[in-house]
User: Fold this.
Amino acid sequence: MNDHAERLSKLLKELQYFVERPRTGWVLEGVRVKKPLRISESKFGGTPYPGDRDQWPTCPTCDVPLNFVLQLHKRRFTGMYFPRNKNLFQIFRCPNAYCDADDDAADRFMTSTFHQTRPGRRVPLKRPEFDPEEYFDYPENPIPEHSFRIHRVADYPSYYEGREEWWGKKWVRFQNKYTSDDPLATYDAWFYEDDFWSRIKNRVGIKIAGLPSWQQSGYPPHCTCGRKKKFIFQLASIYDFQRDADWQISIGDAGNVYHFVCPPCGEKSLQTCWDCG
Ligand SMILES: [Zn+2]
Ligand SMILES: [Zn+2]
Assistant:
């Protein structure tokens, strides 16, 4: 083996350390359903479980009914964080692309909440008659009901600081070693090849756990208790989903809303932030 090949094989061996240290995530793919799903079922769109609500939620700034986006039941998503005594996670969003949400939590008004389902029949909430097309330019329409196809993935950080945060100083040393002023420019260049990054690729899409698909540099927020919050869920933009043109979620442009929680502090620590591509 010549010197270059030997060093390249050494790099790959060292990279293997990181390849073997992913964070498991679950990417959710929508599958159109023929028969309506039960109201406590995990799903995109359709009829939501009412939870503690007695009225369909509305946007406090636009004063219109929110769109139901999805709900996830604990029994199907054991890898997801749920607070004690809660077994259902729900998201609703304002249909207005120009909604003045007035904070850093999402691109528009959005609620992400946990609930507890109860046995027995529940009366579904009635969504008030409302056509977003009549009110807004570029509205987000309600999603037609879909069930989930779940893909378990080995997930990796999406950008440099994220890698340092996930793998620590060992990553920094590795990167420095192979991109510093090395006379062998070939493998310095190789470090930037797609073939290299495909081995530690961040998984995009609507995702449980794993690591955030930051579009710009981002960092997990800290809790008031001082701990770093844990990434639990990502709502991603969807365009022409599986050629299903009536399903569209647009977060900024092609952005994501990231959900974090501090498990010891529980449900009240749930926090979202977002970015766009
Ligand atoms: Zn709004
Ligand atoms: Zn905390």
